[in-house]
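INFO batch 0412 | record 1 of 1 | parsing
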Amino acid sequence: MKSNIIFAAALALTPLAATIAIAQDATAGAAEEHADAQTIQAIHEEWAELIAEKDSAAIGTLYAEDAVLMAPGEAVVEGAAAIEARWARQLTLDGF
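INFO prediction complete | emitting tokens
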């Protein structure tokens, strides 16, 4: 009888434990997403500053070696070095 009560109590608490675990995962996931968003925002702000400074070499360091730049109306540019060169040309144009 005692083992039946313990089993019933454990069975009754299982959904609660699962709900708590899901809530903890969701909270951890939200914190991770917030950190990712902050990282992306910081990189975007740095990128904007480097464009204002017309520092194509530093802009190039923001890109991965296998990055692909697909600007509207332009040919695809592949690789950090090629993207850096593209920015160097872009930053010399009037209006930049």
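INFO post-check: The beta strands are 68-69, 77-78.
INFO record closed
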